[in-house]
Fold this protein.
Amino acid sequence: MKNQYSYTYTVLRYVHDVTSGEFVNVGVALHSPQARYLGAMCRPTIGRIKKVFPSVNIEHFKSMMRHIQNSFEERGERLSGELQFTSPSGVLEIAQAVLPKDDSSLQWSPSGSGRTDDPAQTLEKLFNRMVMRYEDKQASNNRTDDDVWRHFKKDLEGQRILQHFQPKTISVQDDEIEFQHSWKNGKWHCLEPVSFDMASADSIRNKAHLWMGQLASVQGAADPFKVYLLVGAPQQENLLPAFHRAMSMLQRSPADKEIVFEKDALGLAARIAEEVAEHERNSLTLK
């Protein structure tokens, strides 16, 4: 079972007429202190708003969306790298620091809350449900972390080594990460599927920030470990530049890690099988 993190979220509303109270949801912000995660997604298009409120100032609206998105990205990147996470406990306090509460047309909703093992993916789901659900587009077929794991799992099964893996929690004094697929050979080798097959470049970047923060948070753990990030790429070609930037970010993380792409799944399985066989031979020799 993956770690479950508490989170709070708030929806950004465009209130065209404060008197009538009519509004359209235009963004979502989410904060999970335990996961060292802060992110926001804002509406990339204005088509539906223009249909509902024809007199909307398009340039001003787009400028505000960019400002809010950039502000959350800067704060999220800064917070994800802090070993001692000291941000406010609720998303609304952060959101109102980015966009103060006043009588303007952009307003934050009361906050909601929940628990998740993937804050970045939950943010995207909330955004699609709260903001983009009425857009004229096909339903998303994005792959989950579990979908990516199934791709790697078949090659591990083919090498008959899955029985050597077990759950392992890597912990420090104030944080921990639970890996479901780990085996020990001098140090713990932890396999973690991570899908970047997401709906937007912002979601891809946010998920990379999440993993950078999580890996940084358990540096110095008593149990030596190496993480193998089993990565699933986006299916949409226009998101590949964002994906490559995310991989570059993860490569710069100081954690002991290896990024493994789906095309290299068979090679990883063969390599691990060889290491497992050598470990067992050495164990028999010592006996």
Q: What stands out?
A: The chain has a mean pLDDT of 85. The first helix runs from residue 47 to 52. Residues 5-130 form one domain.
